[in-house]
Amino acid sequence: MRTDASIVWGMAGTFGVLGVVFGVLGVVYSPVALGVAVPFGLAGAVFYLHASGRLAELAYRKRRVSREQYEREQRRQSRQRRGRASGRSRERNRGRAGRTSRDRQTAGGVAASGPRREDYRVLGVEPGASSEAVQAAYREKARELHPDRGGDAEEFARVNEAYERLKDD
Hints:
Helix Hairpins
């Protein structure tokens, strides 16, 4: 990963220097060189913003999401691209089509009965919490992790399954 960052820093420096050189040439010799200096300077600025990480900050500020949500979405999209590129995503999901959430809870063919400690942990409530507390925690987690709002789909599914088990009891 270090080589990618050093390449971007090198490009930022190169375009920045070219922008300055053509800018000076434009002032000293010909204004036509200023027309060349502007694109080089802009390219250098964009590469600098990217290498320093400020470009990502501007992107998530523009979308009005938190940095954590932005980074979570980027990781999810990266995983999706890797899965599509390797062709494994279709193979992984092929067997899931007809299964219900109860089927996914089975371990070795034995269905899990009732809520587990992990369900309480996923929702962030104490074991034995009231149904109102469970519902309030579920709504808060669902709002935070919903894929339409930049959340992770796997975590959202985990929260839904935990809530389904806890609300039945």
